[in-house]
Specification:
Elements: H1 3-14, H2 18-26, H3 30-41, E1 54-57, H4 72-77, E2 87-94, E3 107-115, E4 124-130, E5 134-137
Antiparallel strand pairs: 1-2, 1-5, 2-3, 3-4
């Protein structure tokens, strides 16, 4: 068994212990607490993300990052933005400091699936997106 599996088993059995629960919560940052609360109260299914997952995200917190690439009419025509204003991107990493990827992270680095320049070589934009702003996995039309 690896450390994560052992930790999961012990914590799951100890979660009824109020002291242990409060101790675990005390180690979470405000962003991590917010992400946990979002997952508890959201009406969407829980998703364990993987590198290279293509997702729809709400760019509401990324307007500044996208100012040079954000023309909704063009993005909608290219099917990169849906009717609700969500944009398609590819998860390239989490924003944590560990070397291994976490599918439970509170924030991810996404590469936008369109070029932001009209040069010969495409220049793709990478932005940070909160887990709560990722709406769902992208699925091709059947």
């Amino acid at each position: 068994m690896n450390l994560e599996k052992i930790t999961y088993k012990i914590i799951k059995e100890s979660i009824k212990d109020d002291f242990i629960l409060r101790m675990m919560i005390s180690y979470l940052s405000d962003d991590q607490k917010g992400a946990v609360m979002d997952e508890i109260v959201n009406e969407r299914e829980h998703v364990l993300f993987k590198k290279e997952d293509i997702v729809w995200f709400d760019p509401i917190d990324n307007k500044y990052d996208l100012k040079d690439a954000y023309e909704s009419d063009i993005l909608k025509d290219a099917l990169i933005m849906n009717k609700q204003g969500h944009i398609k991107g590819t998860i390239i990493d989490d924003c944590g400091y560990r070397s291994n990827f976490s599918g439970y992270a509170t924030e991810y680095k996404l590469m936008l699936n369109f070029s932001i320049t009209c040069k010969e070589e495409a220049e793709y934009k990478t932005i940070r997106v909160r887990r709560s702003n990722i709406i769902k996995l992208w699925k091709p039309l059947a």
